[in-house]
Amino acid sequence: MKHYIPYHQLPEGGIPPPVTIYGPGVRWWHWINGLLVLVLCVTGYFIGVPPPSALGDPSSLYIMGWIRFLHLASGYLFALLAIARLWLTFVEKGISHHLFVPAIWRAEWFDGFMRQIRWNLLINDQPKRYVGLNPLGGIAMLLMYVLPGFIIIVTGFAMYAEVTGHDSWQYALFGWVTTIFGNTMDLHVIHRLAMWVMAGFVCIHVYIAVREDVMSRQTMISSMLSGERQYRR
Amino acid sequence: MADKPTFYDVFRQRGVSRRDFLGFCALTATYLGLGPNGAASVAHAMQTKPRIPVVWLHGLECTCCSESFLRSGHPLVSDIVMSMISLDYDDTIMAAAGDQAEEILHDIIRDYRGAFILAVEGNVPLANDGMACIVGGRPFKKKFEETARHAKAIISWGTCATSGCVQAAKPNPTRATPIHKLVDRVPVINVPGCPPIAEVMTGVISYILTYDRLPELDNRLRPKLFYSQRVHDKCYRRAHFDAGQFVENWDDEGAKQGWCLYKMGCRGPTTYNACATIGWNENTSSPIRSGHGCIGCSEDGFWDRGPFYERLPDMQQWGIESNADKVAAAGAAGLGTAVAVQLGATAIKRVMKRGDKPDASATQEEKETQA
Q1: In the predicted model, is pLDDT for residue A96 greater than 90?
Q2: Rg of chain B on CA atoms, in Å
Q3: Does B233 lie in the same domain as B221?
Q4: Which of B262, B296, B349 sits opposite A122 (nearest CB)?
Q5: Quick one: which of B168, B152, B160, B194 has its CA closest to B294?
Q6: Domain of B296?
């Protein structure tokens, strides 16, 4: 696949030819990861604030047990997929690097960034079309998805190391995190705050994807399904 | 070193029979989890190694650690360990007082330079040259510095000494500072808890005295023997946690049934201590066993992570009585408003545009009729 400049602005008039910007790896990653984030947010919310007590004998009930199992299993997958996504940046080019390295030092990037802000404040009437991700969306993904995701993975494994104990590989890799905070209650609070940031991101992401698909003269949702971005007049 | 008596010599002088001595060795070995040969190795060490003096200093503290220590489960253990300690210096329980007591401290530092154990209960307030804690007419800071420099190792008793406890709670007006932050060359062993469990205290001190080395420590200098697992890991109510059965109110059916206290703010999942295994007062009970959640007394800054009866701690950075979920709710409200405003404004703009250009819609209709 070709390597594109994601924030490259397309000319105002005419209909540019469609471009393939997402490879199959990134597309599969996006949808599986979306499902995992949903499962993780729901189960994680209930780990912090458990559902109403279940009646019955504890020998036959395992509600928190299953919630925690789902959370921990999805957490492992989430971490593995995050590594896979980093790897895809090098293997499957397209615009996949834009998620991690927004080109804030480029004039065209910054111009697009300001344009998107004006567009979202309804100051600009004509939406810009881009080869890939618009600069505002790219930096929002970095700050509201990638960064909290990283914090969630690190604090999550640090809390998991508490369960597995001093001799585990989780402790060997992430035990140092507990040394920074001292009281591991802080890990839980930071993990939860990062979860809320990510939940907020999901809401914005879905809303903006639908809105841009309707209004910005380019495909959004179907691009993540087919990998191809098409343009309208 | 031949002229210095061994522990066993001291016990015999104090009238402890050999039978009691061996009983003590067996108990200590069991607490420390030393395995079948443990008792024999403890006994051997105590009979051959010269006695190591222990100096016990009291800083900014409430003496609850000493109280706990005096109530050590087995009378034999407390008797023997206490006789080891009281031989030397502990200003709260020693027979000597005033100048005589201070002289003993000087003698130990002179005779056993680099060879005595320093046990510190409480921390050192650094503000105003340490004026918040005066012992023997001088700031405790000075006394601690003079003694700590010559110690072989330091045991920090209780949360005061390991992380500051209530004295160091925000805003920490006396600048109460934990012991391990004040020494750099002398090894420190942290034994947190408010107070620590008596058997943990005697276990730690017996280990050091018999083996002449510190037990294995974790990354926060706590002995792994007693602090490697959370209260939650071995809690007898853990089955109710996994089942999803929680006490919701102090007077509900769950509280009577002994369900998990997680929703009532139990800090068991973030507290490293041996309460669930060793228990308190000869294993009569423990906070959770008596129906109250753990407050995490052996953890750093536990006073600043209240309220004790709520699962999510307050976030003082965001104002009092706010927590992670409330901050998130405020964020969500802001986000929702922004989206609603943008959607509404877009719709109004569209409608106004349509009103401005009637010809645009006319051309549209024309096209349709042509088709």
Answers
A1: no
A2: 30
A3: no
A4: B349
A5: B194
A6: 228-370
**Contact (CB<8Å) B312/A189:** yes
Name which of B254, B262, B335 is nearest A200 (Cβ-Cβ). B335
Same domain, B193 and B57: yes
pLDDT grade for A4, boundaries at 50, 70 and 90: confident
Q: Which two tokens stand for residue B246?
A: 């929680």
Cβ neighbours of residue B119 under 8 Å, at least 6 residues apart? B54, B55, B56, B57, B85, B154, B155, B157, B205
Is B301 near chain A, with CB under 8 Å? yes
Let me know the angle formed at the C-alpha of B126 by B159 and B172, rounded to the nearest 5 degrees: 60
Number of domains in chain B: 3
Establish if A165 touches chain B: CB-CB under 8 angstroms. yes
Query: CB of B121 within 8 A of CB of B61?
Result: yes
SS (H, E, C) B111-148: HCCCCCEEEEECEEECHHHHCCCEECCEEHHHHHHHHH
Do the Cβ atoms of B312 and A192 come within 8 Å? Answer: yes
Q: What is the mean pLDDT of each run of 10 residues along chain B (371 residues)?
A: 72 83 84 84 85 88 88 66 71 84 90 90 93 91 93 94 92 94 93 92 82 88 92 94 94 93 94 91 89 94 90 79 86 91 89 68 44 42
